[in-house]
Amino acid sequence: MSKTLLITSFLFLVIALSGCDNFSVNENIDNDIEQQGRQNDSGKISSEQDESTKAEDALVSFFTHLENQDFEKALLFFELDDPVNDWEGLESFSPLTEDRRSKANVLKNYCEATGTCLEARVIETKKGNNDTYDLVIQFKNPDGSTFVLEPCCGATEEEMPAQDKFDFKVKKINNDLKVTTAPVYRP
Q1: What is the pTM of this model?
Q2: Domain that holds residue 129
């Protein structure tokens, strides 16, 4: 009889614990989906979020894909305001003509040349005009420190103060939010 009671108790304990584990796993999955899935990889946005949060998510997704060197996915979150002139500026970092035919290669070469395609953290978001959002962001270096754009080209700190906050615009284009500011230029 005691052997049966022991086995029954053991089975009850296993069933009870496995039920609790399933609940916590599902809860963790839901949290991960909520945190990671604010904007999916197709650039589409879930409807339950407010527009400011969606704009922040678009910008963070853009820089996350750049940092991870997934330039095709980054393009889903990026559209320059002046596509001809702005892309020409970015293309100047692609010395080979064949690299200039692919916007993903242009972004890759630009990021490699400037070293400014880093993890982004949103500091402030303001609603602008015409479905535009103005964001102030900081970048995180690979070592975890805050990226600082130092004076360059012989300029002094007074002439060109160091900068650790950067302005970016995100705009609603065809119902998708896109970063319309190129990554930070660093010579």
Answers
A1: 0.71
A2: 46-179
